[in-house]
Amino acid sequence: MRRLACLAALCVVAAGGLAATAAADEYVTLRSPDLKVTVDPGFPRVVGYTDTHSGAKLYGNEDRIGQVVLDGTAYTPRVSSRRTGDRVDYRLTFPDYGGVELDASIRVKGREVGFAVTKIRDTERNPVGSLSIPDQNLVSVRSDQPGAALATAKMHTAKSGTGDTFTRITRDTPAEAAPSSAMYGIVNTGQLAASIETNSAYDTPSGPTTKDNGRIREQIADKGGYKRAGLWSGDWTYRAKGAARSDTEPLPYTRIVVTGDRNGDKTVDWQDGAIAFRDIMTNPKGWQQVARRPVMRIPFNFASNAEHPFTQTLDETKRVALNTDGLGQFVLLKGYGSEGHDSAHPDYAGVGKRQGGVKDLNALVENAHRYNADIGVHIQDTEEYPVSPAFDPAIAKDVEKDLGWDWLDQSYHIDYRHDGQSGKRLARLREFKDKVPDLDFLYVDTWYGDGYTSEKFAREMNDLGYDVATEFTEKFERQSVWSHWANDVNYGGSGNKGINSQIVRFIRNHQKDDWIAGDPLLGGGELSAYEGWVGGAGYPAFLDRTFGTDLPTKYLQGFTIQKWAPHTITLSGGVSVSDTSGTRQIAKDGHPVLTGGAYLLPWSQQEETKLYHWNPAGGRTQWTLPKSWGARRSVKLYQLTDTGRRFVKDLDVDAARRITIDAAAKTPYVVYPADPGPNTDANWGDNTGLKDPSFYSGNLDAWKITGDKGKASVPANAAGQRQLRLDGGTGTTVSQRVTGLASGKTYTASVNVQVAPGQRKASLTVTPDGGKPVTRWTDASTVKNYVRASEYAGTTTQRVKVVFDVPEGQSTATLALDAAAGNPPVFFDDVRVVQTGRTPLNGHYFAEDFEHVDTGWGPFVYAGNDGAPDDPRTHLAQKNAPYTQAGWNGKLVDDVIGDGESLKSHEENQGLVYRTLPQTLRFEPGHRYRVSFTYEASKTGDYAFVTGAGTSTTFAEAHTPTTFTATVEGGADAWIGVAKLTPGTQNQDHDLILDNLVVDEIG
């Protein structure tokens, strides 16, 4: 039998056999004003709980236990303990494991009881990796207690089914032969409920995965005269496999909270335990911002096209702020680095120069905060690309066999355990933090880590000040505040569309955007991307989702759930949501604020300084003003537009605080108690040298109009994109001074243009002060824009560019957009001026070495492989020898010819890949040209040089730089390009590299 010797407050227990039960006088009682907790001084074991006020009881573990599992082996330690006030401190010594010692404690404070390992003394020979206390049963209920029940939640992300299990504990409840695992656990009787929290994390893949989440252990045991349902912690990782001795995880802890009726419904059930759990749970960093951000956006850049440079994204952020009257925005930049999305991972600090570089990204982040927008970026630690300066074969799993995603380039899977333990990942994160210090969150894409690896990665990000978002809902469950697959209406499979658990959502609805969307009462986030991601659905659809779905969802997230009954949920703050009437209704203080799809929602949820109105059907509705607005005779109604609030009228308030609103369908409005003052100054074009370069203002006040002035306007197209429209007439020019140019430097100016074929010339001209004008023009928009990341995908809108030099001593220029006389309208949009450089002509008619491209592929545009708009597999490639060059790892061709950048087509789809336009490379009628360039091709017959005249010449296999030459006859629609002759393939070498393009006029 175990021998227990107690001298005053010190108890010493010798190792030995264990009796099934212990005498009551061997226990000690810890007290707080709310609880009496019976504890075993001979081993960290809670025996029972008594509520001080009601006398109601919960149990712990009535069985003697005395073993600790260290690194997979069970040991019986020698135990000494000392009771001090509200705690018992233990020392556990393991003579059979090299004398390792653990210090631990059990402490009571208020309604909380905590078990914690406070120190681990291990040795070089016996380093502690993992530990657990089998069958600890820190809190339990019994079948002979009225109302006894167990509620657990596992990770479940499918649209159907649930991760929840609710079990009444009776004599007839089946016993479980072994413990099982859960993510959350609550026990209750009819008088008390208890929840358990722990920092358990398995060192997977040896332990359960997140979908089985082993954080909590539970078991229903047959104790003879009763059934017992108990909860305790899963295993802890202290030092992970492969970690250095000094690289340890946080010390283990478990917390239990005991409560009575917490929601005032005069009953005790799992929901009271869930409310109490919020007192002890781990809160994700940044959770306080979740309920204030109804607006979700994904500006997308891909394949060197930089369709959404940081400066434009800032203007778009301002437009959305005006159109929503400053609602919080969650803005995820996909493709902020290198050549855009899924390129150069894991170079976190490698901000893409075509997108605007570090300077413009910082300007976006800092200015976006003024418009209530949080900015984050898409990163990865699952794959690495040879083009990345951070590419390191030492962190790859197997560069010979373990191939990753293959899109713009072939990637290789990262050994993210080694990457994290080596400190290299943290160093990259710190480098990025130093460059862009005020970024709000990091979005971790395609993360497959679990347990320890996820906890370590999340801790690194949180410690640097970042909130965490992720692609897959089940990852970073305790740290993530937003999941892509849960929110994107066009993304994610049916098997992974958000956490599907009433228990978890009850607890954390106010903290996370990780839920299955479409809950009939709580709703759910719905992202309708319109800035290039997966093609988008246009700005109007984005507004419909924001106001029709997301704002009501976020309104409810501003309060905590208190009671969830069939068809009715009661939240804090006097808020409830119900569909008992057959339609969804949200009420505040007894008055409806949403009925069906129409609403008048107070915002913010607590301050209630204004009220948002939306009515999908339009028409007249009546609403009661919030109590916080007091008595008043009138309020002010504004319609929201993409240029800000527009006053509609004063609304009378009757004696019952009611107002009547006549609204247009699917149109946002806001109600203020008094005039809020002017709209926020957007200052369109921050950091661009231009004012209103994308015509967001809806007027031409920033531009000078000459010629046929009445023909210039700025309407919005069907996708909600404002454009400069120059209608038919005698000719119109719209111009502006470009400021802030660097003396003696070279710049590229460009603009999107669309003009009907052969009817009218549309020109872009830049005249530097002290210099000569430079002009490019087109009179035919006949080539479809196949870049899916463009808002103009599917139209014939393409960019026109000019390169100009700023004379020494000068810093300004005049930029003019001109439509010559004619009838069809000409459209311009998204003017951009960026510092670049130029390829020396050296006597040639045209030359392009791809070293100074602002956006796109030099003179070439994506031709869509003869299909619909899509994301290409061609981009500008940078040299990162030896990994990007022929010979490394069996690679057949160089990604880059020479020392700079080259145009790379990687395993492209079959069809025309890219071609020139007359506005990018003009072959004049009646002239002949010699075209030459350097290329490498991995295989003969993959790609061909093609012309507008229908000629086609197949590239021969070339694993070293090879010169190609062809003759081209000029003409109105003469062009050159490259076609892929074979079907698209992946994880194989089917590449064409092109560089040093020159064109000479020969006749």
Automatic annotation (TrEMBL):
Glycosyl hydrolase 101 beta-sandwich domain mapped to chain residues: 550-646
Keywords: Signal
Transport in keyword set: no
Signal peptide from the UniProt entry: 1-24
Record's keyword annotation contains Signal: yes
Domain Galactose mutarotase-like fold: 30-270
Residue span(s) of domain Endo-alpha-N-acetylgalactosaminidase: 271-542, 691-825, 830-955
Alphabetized Gene3D superfamilies for the sequence: 2.70.98.10, Galactose-binding domain-like, Glycosidases, Golgi alpha-mannosidase II
Pfam families: Gal_mutarotas_3 (PF18080), GalBD_like (PF17974), GH101_dom-5 (PF21466), Glyco_hyd_101C (PF17451), Glyco_hydro_101 (PF12905)
Organism this protein belongs to: Amycolatopsis samaneae
InterPro entries in UniProt: Beta_sandwich_GH101, Endoa_GalNAc, Gal_mutarotas_3, GH-type_carb-bd, GH101_dom-5, GH101_dom-6, Glyco_hydro_b
Protein name, entry field: Endo-alpha-N-acetylgalactosaminidase family protein
